[in-house]
Amino acid sequence: MSARTMRAIRLHEHGGPDVLRYEEVPIPEPGPGEVLVRVHAAGVNPPDWYLRDGMTTMPGEWKSTVSLPVIPGTDVSGVVETVAADVEGFAPGDEVFGLLRFPSFKGSAYAEYVAAPASDLAHKPAGIDHVDAAGAPMAGLTAWQFLIDVGHDHPSPFQEARHQPTALDADTTVLVNGAAGGVGHLALQLAKWKGARVIAVASGAHASFLHELGADRFIDYTTSRPEELVNDIDLVLDTVGGPGSASLLRTLKRGGAQFPVLPGGVGEEEAAKLGITLSSAQVRSNGAQLAELGRLLDTGTVQVAIDSTFPLSDARAAHERAARGHIRGKIVLTAT
After folding, report:
1. What does DSSP say about strands 173-177 and 197-202: parallel, antiparallel, or unpaired?
2. CB 87 within 8 A of CB 35
3. Which CATH superfamily is domain 164-278 in?
4. Is the whole model's pTM more than 0.85, yes or no?
5. Where in the chain is the domain with CATH 3.40.50.720?
6. How large a percentage of the chain has pLDDT more than 90?
7. Which end of the chain is more exposed for a tag (fewer CB within 10 A), N or C?
């Protein structure tokens, strides 16, 4: 491999995990406002396998901006190699992490090097390693922008009104559906950080894990229906979606809110009849918010759970693991 090339995962066609090809490609050149990052680890997220399967248009877009071959991935942790002349706040040797160019399929994180917008990056917390840092950006910012602060004024492709997080404090009870997953386990911890009481819904295998993260109550959805066990909830964060979303409305008090991370499972009319606010958002890259989350990661107030790690060269196995479901925390690729 020459000095100006690197190894990366690319898609030349859409399909199953077997279409992920590990090959030699040119090292990207950072443009204005960008830094070149030597990747140590890259997080695996649903948009990665959506792209692999053939989704090439983000919600709200009218046409595809994807041209094959393409390097998937958005979550990265690594070390700054070079910076563009107009970049301030980062220097060669800095450890950084970030959610790159989202919402788009142009993150190109499944690689040994990536050109990253400086505004999408934050300094990696010294108290965590690159694997944990790579697992944090998309899931952590999704939880942050749903629960703490949207942090942008971009219109949502899912609704006309701007998403408004619910104030969380000791008088708030939050139910997190899919609490063991990437977004769910971080949302649980952020809600606890704000002082809320949290009810975690997941399969029974995750009960002790979620209690250790601070869940006040656990519901095993494989043996019980949340709407039959709890009511008067202030907020439901539903990270699962699908047909079961509508039944979660019955856990909420009148005036409560349900935030679906995957919109579409609940009718607005039904929510309105029950006096429930239904609101969603689309996560966006935000280095400043990631820096705030990073401070919580550095102190251990919030922790990233790692389901499994795979070398970059075996991204296929990582996607096969994702397809089996029941993921606890995050799947991460290691590039070094």
Report:
1. parallel
2. yes
3. NAD(P)-binding Rossmann-like Domain (3.40.50.720)
4. yes
5. 164-278
6. 88
7. N
Take residue 30 and report the two structure tokens written for it.
């950072």
Other residues' Cβ atoms within 10 Å of the Cβ of residue 126: 8
Tokens representing 197 are: 């009481």
Omega before 103 cis (within 30°)? yes
Alpha-carbon span 15 to 151, nearest angstrom: 35
Write out pLDDT tens, residues 139-171.
999 999 999 999 998 888 888 889 999 999 999
For the chain, give every residue range classified as CATH 3.90.180.10.
Answer: 5-137+285-334
CA 243 – CA 245 distance, rounded (Å): 6
Question: If we measure between CA atoms, which residue out of 336, 330, 284, 322 comes closest to residue 303?
Answer: 330
Model confidence over 160-207: pLDDT tens digits? 889 999 999 999 999 999 999 999 999 999 999 999 999 999 999 999
Identify the helix (H) or strand (E) that includes residue 23: strand 20-26
CATH class in words for 5-137+285-334: alpha beta
One-letter amino acid for residue 143 of the chain: A
